[in-house]
Design a protein that fits this description.
single chain, alpha+beta, Major capsid protein gp5 fold, hypothetical protein PF0899 fold, 2 domains, 5-stranded mixed beta sheet, 16 strands
Amino acid sequence: MAAVDINRGTTGVSLPASVSSEIWGATVEESTIMKVSRQIALPGNGVTIPMVTGEAVANWVAESEEKPVSRPTVSNKAMTAYKLAVIVPFSNEFKRDVGTLYAELVRRLPAALAKKFDSTVYGNSAAPGSNFDTLAAAPTATVDATGTFLDLIGVVNTLGASGYDISAWIASPSLYGTFLTVTNTLGQQIFTPGNAASTSVGDVLGSPVYKTRTALPVGAGATADKIGFAGDFAGNTVWGSVQGIQVSQSDQATLNDGGTSINLWQRNMFAVRAEIEVGFRVKDINAILSLNDGTAD
């Protein structure tokens, strides 16, 4: 029997690059935050992202007058790569059907990684480190079943007052349902269904809607439940990954499954490990509005 080896030097059999690439692509597709945010290359030791915080201002001048001088303002944020991982054990009998194994990997692993990434960004759990932002502190707005059209207009106006427009809506199933039923003052449905070529599920007030499969934070006491987000994601939220997804498998390791030891060799099993090093940053939290249902629990 091979020695049990569960430290950082654990060796495994890497899966074909095509499988890892397929899993990586599916993870990005599963993640709503990755869809709506800008992606950048993230080196292993992190990166400092320059951010424009104020624009240069032009002005009118008369003939022969001096032209105005104006300077944009800039800042920066450090983005650090944090590791997100999952291990899935299988029986050797399942391994015999290689095609089924690959299909199962593609089905399970992207959803697990994307769900945890989105859940953390939404504010369901603490950030993995100080250089990873979440939307927990985003300003709030209420969108409920009463006067919904005016609620949505209010979201646009609130963001506009801060100098931002809406590049995307992120909707929970309940908010998505509200979009489907609300009408404007003329009785016209404001939700425009998406087309087959689009990754969004439709359009509200001129901006695409992305439905999230990840639960949003539930309010406690006098706090209402979050049902979505709206804001300038394209210009203010950034994510990056060091190498995409790294996938390996082993039949010699011993897993610690919530305090239960599982010796894979002894049980005729093997395990597949998927991990990514990923970061997320927000330029200005005021560019995003957290939408709630207006009902205290």
